[in-house]
Amino acid sequence: MSIKPENIRIEDYIYDLPEDRIAKYPLDQRDSSQLLVFNKGKISRDLFSNLDKYADSNSTFVFNNTKVIQARLKFFKETGSKIEIFCLEPIDPSDYVLAFQQTERITWKCIIGNLKKWKDKNLKKLITIGNDKIELNASKRAQDGNAQIIEFTWNNNKFTFSEILENIGATPIPPYLNRESESIDKDRYQTVYSKLKGSVAAPTAGLHFTNSVFNKLRAKNIHIEEVTLHVGAGTFKPVNSKTIDAHEMHTEHFVVKKSTIENLLKSKKIVAVGTTSVRTIESLYWIGVKLIENKILYAHITQWEAYELPDLNRQEALKALLNYMHKNDMDEIDASTQIMIFPGYKYKLVDALITNFHQPKSTLLLLIAAFIGNDWKKVYDFALNKDFRFLSYGDSSILIPN
What we know:
The chain is an alpha/beta fold. The chain has 2 domains: 5-67 and 188-400, QueA-like (3-Layer(aba) Sandwich), CATH 3.40.1780; 72-169, no CATH class. It contains 9 helices and 18 strands. The strands form 3 sheets. Strands 2-1-18-17-14-3-12-13-16-15 form a 10-stranded mixed beta sheet, with helices on one face. It is globular and about 60 Å long. The mean pLDDT is 94.
């Protein structure tokens, strides 16, 4: 590995973020947020509604169409103690679509709030959906690191687990908002183009898009492509080690259609909307490289793999992936990635990036620093000095390095 993660010190990726600069609520209008424009080293300010001014005709925008689920479930013991169950990902069945379709029983990997108070085997919650009364039970089955494997059962097979979450679950807003979720979050902590349920955090770069912005982009003959990466709670995990070699990156699952990969192959300029889209399409490239190197056993990119595989032409990598899909009669690729993008990484598919402003000491800030180099400091200084709003409900930026 030519780039040594033990040489990347997290203290070099810290900046002062005052609490009052964190946007606690969304603006009334999605596309009225500020837009920082970093274009080949020059920085300026505009409104997000004018995003089309900075997009090249015939470029391809890639969006993550994942949908945030109402992942937080509150149970109360007879003593009054509150136990909160935060559903992270389905275990049995592990397929998201099948998991949400279950009508009697499902097992999830969960984080438990107030776990020390949960000493009984089962928790019960009586709920009402329409005219139907349902008893929902939660049982601990096993421990998985800091998480628990929880089995949910309910006594009315008219309702899917998806419907139960939608009716009684709460929106899993980020912990740094330091508030309970409210009714506004159910709509606004969700992109207007969200489709496939599975995320416990929103792909927040997409929160600014409106039908008006999409119409302006299409008027410039900009192509719209969608991928699906279900965002996990690990996205909020800071780097707590002194150097990044000791940080364990979280794994996220993604799905990309064959037609999308074909269009990426033809695209001269690819604009990723959000860091989750970056992680998805950069991982596609490395899966293609693994196929060329005959190293693929299953479609997964490990944390450091991108720094150990050879650099190839992006067309070569995508063609190898498409050939593999054609031979195996695949309409989409279902894969996972643990890729950690940090300074020194050379981007393979992403030419421009639309993203919000990220936390200090975060892997997302490292990803930005890898994309625009030390200019990330100028970008964040500009944003702080010009009263930009930060983090999930904050303002946006478009980064064009070359």
